[in-house]
Amino acid sequence: MSIAIVNSLLEKTKDFSIEETLAFLANEYKDKVVFSTSFGQEDQVITALIAKNDLPITIFTLDTGRMFQETYDVFHKTLKKYKIDIKTYFPEATAVEELLNKKGPNSFYESVENRKECCFIRKVAPLTKALKGNEIWITGLRAEQSENRNDLAAFEYDAHFNIIKFNPLLKWTLTEVQKYIDDNNVPQNALHKKGFVSIGCAPCTRAIAEGEDIRAGRWSWESSHKECGLHQK
Fold first, then answer.
1. Strand pairing class (155-158; 163-166)
2. 86-109 mean pLDDT
3. What are the tens digits of pLDDT across the range 183-206?
4. Would the pLDDT of 68 be above 70?
5. What is the mean pLDDT of residues 36-59?
6. DSSP for the chain, written as a single string
7. How far apart are CA 98 and CA 163, in angstroms?
8. What is the mean pLDDT of residues 24-46?
9. Which of 1, 60, 94, 210 could form an SS bridge with 87, CB 3.0 to 4.6 Å?
10. How far is CA 33 from CA 10, 62, 125, 134, 206, in A?
């Protein structure tokens, strides 16, 4: 059934612009469309499109408790510029307390399993709460962000969260994203000008050197697929 819905959405919106598709989804799935932002460049473009068109789409973010100050700065600037609400979800305090009491504050450096445990507590569990009861999840995924995202479609069924994902910027290049930001004076994280492309928690993110893969700055001590569990691709 979910695959049929995905195929129907792909067909119905194939000739729509991103803004037309967002408006269509907001009307078709009233109060059941959400957009998750981490205030990266892609997410800022989507936020601008939602705000500019005054679309009834709930915007939310996950505050892991270990974010960069620069991320909070762009969060605040976004609220002020667009006069919108952004709902914030936090990890369960007891789960964080138990993790730190048992393994200390930097256990994620010790193994992939420990890092994924931290990601689950701080990101995946809150996301599960945020997505509950909704039908469409809008994301800022782009195909060129990693090799395993090349085969994504604009609409996908996410079996893990039992929700349909819409990836409006899937085929955009980073250059196109930056151009939209510059042309429309969209607030962006100051770290992007310092070589940070993909920005997550402060302990797990570094700037990348010229020529490095976009995801090289995330969990740079690992040779894993560099995913935290929010997206399986």
1. antiparallel
2. 98
3. 999 999 999 999 998 899 999 999
4. yes
5. 98
6. -HHHHHHHHHHHTTT--HHHHHHHHHHHTTT-EEEE--S-HHHHHHHHHHHHTT---EEEEE--S-B-HHHHHHHHHHHHHHT---EEE---HHHHHHHHHHH-TTGGGT-HHHHHHHHIIIIIHHHHHHHTT-SEEE----GGG-GGGTT--SEEEETTTTEEEE-TTTT--HHHHHHHHHHTT----GGGGGT--S--BGGGB----TTS-GGGGBSTT--S----SS---
7. 30
8. 97
9. 60
10. 16, 17, 19, 6, 32
Position 132, amino acid: K
Question: Annotated active-site positions, please?
Answer: 228
Tokens representing 219?
A: 């969990």
Average pLDDT for 168-191: 96
Considering the chain, what percentage of its residues have pLDDT values greater than 90?
A: 82
